[in-house]
């Protein structure tokens, strides 16, 4: 029978960075055999996630997940990384789960297995034909993780391997708070010294009950700027959701924070100009849909015309990259981007603006090959089921594209000085 063949399963690379592609190859099976390639991951919170595709071995008895179409499962068609981006909680899991890496010093482990036939359930109850454990790292070998507590900060600095000095990046997440390190660790793996900052639930707020103000973010910027291994004139800021509001505020008005460039993911410039977090969070009232899911996007709509209610992006003097999902159900990121574009055109600084807008992508545009969450339980003051939007395939494509283009944008603005640009241009013209 088919099971007696010495089936070979290989995943290359079996250990790599989270944003690297891998190749899954099944060899030495009878031609035409139906197989299910399955991925299983147990999250740090104990919940298990799975993804699987249905394949048919070719005439040589091989399946190459990077080239062969999945005929069904949690994804279909030729999807080299479908086994990761289509991960969903295993049947029977509680609703509203979200998968995130909390300890970046250990890898995300995924077990890739092969089963005979086109299976859709009960994977735990049967024996796989073969299995391989794959490691996905946010921290490349040699990246250093340094907790920062000076100046009352709750932050972690990630330094790339090598002596440096490196360009720097201040990394801000959204309205959920907590110190999230995985994106900063990944940026450091790509050569950018990155400071992950908790500005919503830092220890100082937990102790005093008071929200931080812009001085807290400026203190974080200074820590990065004054670090001996950071290039003080080449610092970027990146914010997602609420973090984007803070990023825009600092880029436009701060006397301390002088950015080389800024990236805002699923954010908005709509906020009281003379306030900070407290005023921003009090600016609106929450709305629920019929399924009792919370939606924040209408809080800021229609986009106000009153200049005191939005950041004057016409003041920006550094390149700005906006990443938006057009099916964002949580925040009016697309509408905000269009208004910012108009404001910058009027002010004559629209040459600084790049907008990446993705059809059918939702709010949480994260590093690539990570699962898409249309909704999950958001713990703010109390737990609410938040709706984020997006269709899984389109959203996954957006994550991959946006991540690649964000890295290019950061490299162009943080590494390549004007001198090299001019030199490149001269060389290009002279060789033409």
UniProtKB/TrEMBL annotation:
Q: Which InterPro entries match?
A: AB_hydrolase_fold, Acyl-CoA_thioEstase_long-chain, BAAT_C, Thio_Ohase/aa_AcTrfase, Thio_Ohase/BAAT_N
Catalytic residues at: 241, 328, 363
Domain named BAAT/Acyl-CoA thioester hydrolase C-terminal: residues: 213-414
Q: Which residues form the Acyl-CoA thioester hydrolase/bile acid-CoA amino acid N-acetyltransferase domain?
A: 19-150
An example GO BP is: fatty acid metabolic process
Q: Name one GO molecular function term.
A: fatty acyl-CoA hydrolase activity
Instruction: Say which family it is in.
Output: Belongs to the C/M/P thioester hydrolase family.
- Supply the name of the protein: Acyl-coenzyme A thioesterase 4-like
């Amino acid at each position: 029978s088919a099971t007696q063949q010495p089936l070979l399963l290989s995943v290359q690379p079996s250990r790599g960075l989270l944003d690297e592609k891998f190749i899954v190859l099944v060899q030495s099976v009878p031609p035409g055999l139906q197989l299910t390639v399955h991925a299983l991951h147990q999250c740090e919170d104990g919940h298990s996630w799975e993804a699987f595709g249905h394949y048919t071995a070719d005439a040589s008895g091989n399946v190459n997940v990077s080239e062969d179409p999945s005929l069904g499962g949690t994804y279909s068609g030729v999807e080299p990384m479908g086994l990761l981006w289509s991960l969903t909680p295993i049947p029977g899991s509680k609703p509203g789960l979200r998968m995130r890496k909390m300890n970046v010093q250990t890898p995300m482990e995924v077990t890739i297995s092969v089963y005979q036939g086109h299976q859709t359930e009960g994977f735990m109850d049967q024996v796989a034909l073969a299995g391989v454990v794959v490691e996905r790292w946010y921290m490349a070998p040699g990246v250093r993780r340094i907790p920062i507590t000076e100046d009352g900060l709750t932050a972690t600095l990630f330094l790339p391997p090598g002596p440096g000095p490196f360009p720097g990046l201040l990394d801000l997440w959204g309205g959920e708070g907590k110190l999230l390190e995985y994106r900063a660790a990944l940026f450091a793996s790509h050569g950018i010294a990155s400071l992950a900052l908790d500005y919503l639930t830092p220890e100082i707020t937990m102790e005093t009950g008071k929200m931080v103000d812009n001085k807290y973010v400026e203190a974080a910027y200074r820590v990065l700027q004054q670090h001996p291994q950071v290039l003080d004139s080449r610092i970027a800021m990146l914010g997602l959701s609420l973090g984007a509001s803070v990023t825009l505020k600092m880029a436009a008005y701060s006397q301390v924070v002088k950015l080389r460039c800024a990236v805002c993911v699923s954010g908005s410039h709509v906020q009281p100009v003379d306030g900070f977090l407290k005023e921003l969070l009090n600016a609106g009232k929450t709305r629920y849909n019929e399924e009792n899911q919370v939606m924040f996007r209408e809080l800021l709509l229609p986009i106000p015309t009153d200049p005191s209610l939005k950041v004057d992006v016409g003041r920006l003097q550094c390149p700005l990259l906006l990443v938006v999902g057009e099916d964002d159900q949580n925040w009016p990121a697309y509408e905000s981007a269009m208004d910012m574009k108009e404001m910058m055109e009027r002010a004559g600084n629209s040459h600084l603006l790049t907008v990446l807008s993705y059809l059918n992508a939702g709010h949480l545009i994260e590093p690539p090959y990570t699962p898409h969450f249309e909704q999950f339980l958001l713990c703010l003051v109390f737990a609410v089921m938040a709706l984020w939007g997006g269709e899984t395939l389109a959203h996954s494509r957006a994550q991959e594209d946006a991540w690649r283009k964000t890295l290019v944008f950061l490299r162009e603005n943080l590494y390549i000085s004007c001198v090299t640009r001019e030199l490149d241009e001269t060389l290009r013209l002279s060789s033409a």
